[in-house]
């Protein structure tokens, strides 16, 4: 089958975008995301009509291993950029997008978008472990589960495989973030994403880090700049919600022969 696709990224968190209502399977998604035998991506965004009130389009997001995910903050911005560039929505108006975690609204802002990510939920304390090193952290839900661990420096961490975590606390798995403070309200972060491995950026993860950082300082609101390996994101937490601002780029359009993919 000759399948049309677009390729985009938000601060290096990259996606294959599908417009066709092709039946997706975990095997097809993993093959598309394979960086050697496929197109290569951290996940797949499929554009589907939304049947419930509030938004015309549904973001069907799959992790690179073929598992489904509730939300992707960088993905929402890239999805919004694709909707604009494909002529589905106006480029100067709010863009409501339905996701498995609920409605998210993207507002055009410079070269990117500012997204209403919804109200964060603090889940309590837990831990992650890499080798013999154990890290205490704070659980945060951004519609998907996160564990945020402060560390002196993020550079030496070995994130080529999933950190161990409390499976009773996170029975469906967890995205694990590690951050260090560069200066007040300016952080550096690395992340291991559930279903994708270490990525250059994680939008919901940066929101979770900002929320945990503010909480550690006795604050419930504020604006935090978060540097990730793929660039910079800005998170603003107010009394009602959490906002994520950053770039969104569509890189290419093409066709892939699904019969040539390696399953």
TrEMBL record:
One MF annotation (Gene Ontology) recorded for this entry: diaminopimelate epimerase activity
Keyword Cytoplasm: yes
Positions bound to substrate: 13, 63, 73-74, 144, 175, 193-194, 203-204
InterPro entries: DAP_epimerase_AS, DAP_epimerase_DapF
EC identifiers of the protein: 5.1.1.7
Sites marked Could be important to modulate the pK values of the two catalytic cysteine residues: 146, 193
Top EC class for this record: isomerase
Subcellular location: Cytoplasm
Keyword Isomerase attached: yes
Pfam families xrefs: DAP_epimerase
Reaction(s) the record says it catalyses: (2S,6S)-2,6-diaminopimelate = meso-2,6-diaminopimelate
Pathway, per record: Amino-acid biosynthesis; L-lysine biosynthesis via DAP pathway; DL-2,6-diaminopimelate from LL-2,6-diaminopimelate: step 1/1
SUPFAM superfamilies xref list: Diaminopimelate epimerase-like
Key words of the record: Amino-acid biosynthesis, Cytoplasm, Isomerase, Lysine biosynthesis
Gene3D superfamilies: Diaminopimelate Epimerase, Chain A, domain 1
Database matches in HAMAP family: DAP_epimerase (MF_00197)
Function: Catalyzes the stereoinversion of LL-2,6-diaminopimelate (L,L-DAP) to meso-diaminopimelate (meso-DAP), a precursor of L-lysine and an essential component of the bacterial peptidoglycan.
Family: Belongs to the diaminopimelate epimerase family.
PANTHER family: DIAMINOPIMELATE EPIMERASE, DIAMINOPIMELATE EPIMERASE, CHLOROPLASTIC
Subunit (UniProt): Homodimer.
The name this protein goes by in its record: Diaminopimelate epimerase
């Amino acid at each position: 089958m000759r399948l049309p696709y677009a390729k985009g990224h938000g601060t290096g968190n990259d996606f294959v975008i599908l417009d066709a209502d092709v039946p997706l399977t975990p095997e097809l998604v993993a093959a598309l995301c394979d960086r050697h035998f496929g197109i290569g991506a951290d996940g797949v965004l499929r554009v589907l009509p939304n049947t419930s009130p509030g938004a015309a389009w549904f973001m069907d997001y799959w992790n690179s291993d073929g598992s489904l995910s509730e939300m992707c903050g960088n993905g929402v911005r890239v999805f919004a950029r694709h909707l604009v560039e494909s002529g589905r929505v106006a480029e100067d108006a709010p863009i409501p997008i339905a996701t498995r975690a609920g409605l998210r609204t993207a507002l055009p802002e410079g070269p990117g978008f500012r997204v209403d990510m919804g109200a964060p939920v603090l889940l309590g304390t837990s831990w992650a472990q890499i080798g013999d090193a154990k890290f205490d952290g704070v659980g945060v839900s951004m519609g998907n589960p996160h564990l945020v661990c402060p560390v002196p420096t993020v550079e030496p961490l070995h994130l080529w495989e999933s950190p161990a975590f409390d499976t009773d606390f996170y029975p469906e798995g967890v995205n694990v973030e590690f951050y260090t403070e560069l200066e007040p309200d300016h952080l550096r972060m690395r992340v291991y994403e559930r279903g994708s491995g270490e990525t250059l950026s994680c939008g919901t993860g940066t929101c979770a880090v900002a929320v945990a950082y503010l909480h550690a300082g006795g604050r419930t609101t504020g604006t935090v700049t978060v540097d990730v390996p793929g660039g910079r994101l800005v998170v603003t937490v107010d009394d009602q919600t959490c906002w994520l601002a950053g770039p969104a780029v569509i890189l290419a359009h093409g066709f892939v022969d699904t019969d040539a993919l390696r399953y």
